[in-house]
């Protein structure tokens, strides 16, 4: 008998438990039950049932739940901060200011503005359609899938979730497997705030869970994460004709002109590059400094970085990295840069990194970098700041625009005309002048990337409306039996010619228009 060889299955079974490990200490916090693929159909069914009831509430009725959530989160502020800090390795101050505060602010913003943004809008009606009324309504999409990353696991899940919920959608959240404790926290917060059953569901797990939910035909996908995953999600969404917003990576430039407030720019660069250990989609990843102040700037950067404290105590400035896989990416880019001649002004070379008892990388300022180094073109997502001199505005703009990304950028100068001129030439979704990243926390402004940094945006009015279909309506009182463009056409052509010449030509006469309109209508009756 011929030997029968069975192929080992390419797909590994998904683990039934996720491990929440504190990256600052390497210690296991707890295990979390993972979502299983066979729960997919039921999860969507539950979401759709819950959604129709949720959608039948008025926006102001939905916002009552938002208020309860805001109060609950304010009461539990310390516990929330503790949980997210232990899940991510961030300093507690950063959890409070960059995770919890933006969520609370977003809730308060929705409570104030969602009703107006999502209520019916009157629209104009062309003269040709005299007497009719036009308006736009915003209709919930249905079951929205939100897939979130690990770097800001609270706010990057909760803000899109709340944006979708305000419009009457049900939400299925797929939090990052790297920070599962925060995923669980979000699930509990919505439950404790009293949101109706299944209006919010969380499916804990990794890539396999994200894939199975993406294939489960949600009515909308809101994804935040890497370019690679964004492309895979977009490909699946295209197959099923599902609309998606993609918030992806960045390689953000900061441009400092010689006339800038140098001390402010130094402090801004250090915070912009090293907050959250550089694991920010909008981290300063390339710092361009005008040559006359370049050396002085580097010296000030070195002093400022050396004054930073790293650890997981309450007074530390820089926490640990969150994901071991990200440490490997930073390591690989650093090795490439050093091997190609980059010089470290601060920090340690990868061979000295010890991440066994906590994923700490000391902040690195890098000089003598050149275009062929990965560190200048690929997203680093770690505490490394390459500093590059430039000689002209033209060169700064060209270099800033030289990557495949376009998320955020900043321009530093006392000359506001120059700042605005340079910002206008940057191919970027967002920008700040004499500041870093600040634009993302203004809920009045849209946030989204261009080029490989994403498709679409959220925040701002559009951030609520993307989760709704725009329903465009024109209404007639129904009293007339005919419309001028309806059958029969007999005898109408010359009158139409005169009518359109009157409307669109150089001489308009309202009385003539009205007469022509009536004459055409009469032809309909004859
Ligand atoms: P990632 O793409 O690896 O994972 C993001 C999420 O997608 C996770 O929940 C993951 O489990 C899930 N996932 C992975 N593969 C999937 C698949 N094939 N189908 C469906 N889901 C899948 O990204 P990450 O490492 O968690 O996050 C870091 C990246 O996110 C960086 O590139 C960063 O720049 C980007 N990011 C962007 C923004 C923004 O607003 N533009 C904000 C934060 C982070």
Can you walk through the features of this model?
It is a single chain. By secondary structure, the protein is α/β, with parallel strands linked by helices. It has three domains: 17-248 and 462-471, Aldehyde Dehydrogenase, Chain A, domain 1; 252-440, Aldehyde Dehydrogenase, Chain A, domain 2 (3-Layer(aba) Sandwich); 483-525, no CATH class. The protein is 41% helix and 17% strand. The strands form five sheets. A seven-stranded mixed beta sheet has the order 12-13-14-11-10-16-17, with helices on both faces. A six-stranded mixed beta sheet has the order 7-6-5-8-9-19, sandwiched between helices. A three-stranded antiparallel beta sheet has the order 3-4-20, with no helix packed on it. The N and C termini lie far apart (90 Å). Mean pLDDT is 95; it is low at 1-11. The site of nicotinamide-adenine-dinucleotide has 30 residues, from helix 7 and helix 8. Nicotinamide-adenine-dinucleotide binds next to helix 7 and helix 8.
Uncertain spans: 1-11
CATH class of the largest domain: Alpha Beta
The total of beta strands comes to: 20
Structural class: alpha/beta
Alpha-carbon Rg, integer: 28 Å
- Topology-level CATH name of the largest domain: Aldehyde Dehydrogenase, Chain A, domain 1
CATH architectural grouping of the largest domain? 3-Layer(aba) Sandwich
Which geometry do the CA atoms define? globular
What is the number of helical segments per DSSP (H or I, 4+ residues)? 16
Average pLDDT score:
95
Q: Order of strands side by side in the largest beta sheet?
A: 12-13-14-11-10-16-17
Instruction: Assess the beta-strand content as a share of residues.
Output: 15-25%
For the record, the count of structural domains works out to 3
Helix content: 40-55%
Sheet with the most strands, sense and barrel status: 7 strands, mixed
Distance between the termini: 90 Å
Ligands, deduplicated: nicotinamide-adenine-dinucleotide
The CATH superfamily of the largest domain turns out to be Aldehyde Dehydrogenase, Chain A, domain 1
